Amino acid sequence: MEKLVQRKGESLKVIVPAEVDHCFADEVREEVDRRLQTEDIRVLEFDFKDTEFMDSSGIGLLMGRYKLMRAIGGEVRITHTGERIRKILMLSGIHKIIPIEKEF
Amino acid sequence: MKQEMKLEIDSIPSNESFARVVVAAFLTRLNPTMEEVADIKTAISEAVTNAIIHGYRQEVHKIVIEAAIEEDILEVSVQDFGVGIEDVKKAMEPLYTTRRDLERSGMGFVFMEAFMDTIKVESKVGEGTKVTMTKRVGKRYGRDF
């Protein structure tokens, strides 16, 4: 889990794996929340470049981290989403509160 | 000819991926598109996660998954013998969840409805819940049966 969560300055980047379900959501939640409590993080990025599958557990994970980051005045970024992940995010409506960054 | 499968698994999180992969493998004979496979995997994942978290409240018991293919229709059911749902209509409302503490998004049934053609939820308090879903698969080839 440690190598999936990388620190760079005030940013914490989560390299989201190929499949996001309840199992992964619980693991990453534990690790990210621990680091948010002990380190000075302003930006939390979820990088979906490798992700092909996500269910609603991923939505719960993103919502929860969004609330945490908002409480400390920070922000959540969602990057490198493929077509499938965008479909899931749009369906959940979460893109209305966390902008999905456009690809270039 | 109708083709069937049945899988009985423990209600543990690592079986969520196992269950969706098994059903996806069963589905390959219909030549599904990548999108159809992803839709069905998501729906199975939601139903199995519900059984684990809500049906069995994270205790370990059995979940039964049955699937059948007839012509180009997949029918799949996920059944637990847990606590059951008091108000199915309410449980299916978007964003409704009884486990905010576990960061459940309340989107599980929304995803199942969105990704499958039909969904039927049978539940009895104290006896369990059975979610049955269908989807027509292999749309890209049209109907050539």
Summarize the structure in words.
- The complex is a heterodimer of chains A (104) and B (145).
- Chain A is an alpha/beta fold.
- Chain A has a single domain, classed as 2-Layer Sandwich (Transcription Regulator spoIIAA), CATH 3.30.750.
- In chain A, 41% of the residues lie in helices and 22% in strands.
- The longest helix of chain A has 17 residues, at 22-38.
- Chain A is globular, with a radius of gyration of 12 Å.
- Chain B has 145 residues and is of the alpha+beta class.
- Chain B has 4 helices and 5 strands, in the order βααββααββ.
- Chain B has a single domain, classed as Heat Shock Protein 90.
- Chain A binds chain B through residues 19, 21-23, 25-26, 29, 52-57, 59-61, 63-64, 84, 88, 91-92, and chain B through 13-14, 16-17, 35, 38, 41-42, 45-46, 49, 52-53, 102-108, 110-111, 114.
Q: State the helix count of chain A.
A: 3
pLDDT averaged over residues of chain B: 94
Strand content of chain A: 15-25%
CATH homologous superfamily caption of chain A: STAS domain
Rg of chain A, please?
A: 12 Å
Spatial extent as radius of gyration of chain B: 15 Å
Q: Portion of residues in helices of chain B?
A: 25-40%
Oligomer: heterodimer
Can you tell me the CATH topology of chain A?
Answer: Transcription Regulator spoIIAA
Classify the secondary structure makeup of chain B into a structural class.
Answer: alpha+beta
**CATH homologous superfamily title of chain B:** Histidine kinase-like ATPase, C-terminal domain
Beta-strand percentage of chain B?
A: 25-35%
Question: At the first level of CATH, what is the class of chain B?
Answer: Alpha Beta
Q: What is the number of strand segments of chain A?
A: 6
Shape of chain B: globular
Largest sheet of chain A: 4 strands, mixed
CATH architecture identity of chain B = 2-Layer Sandwich
Average pLDDT metric of chain A: 92
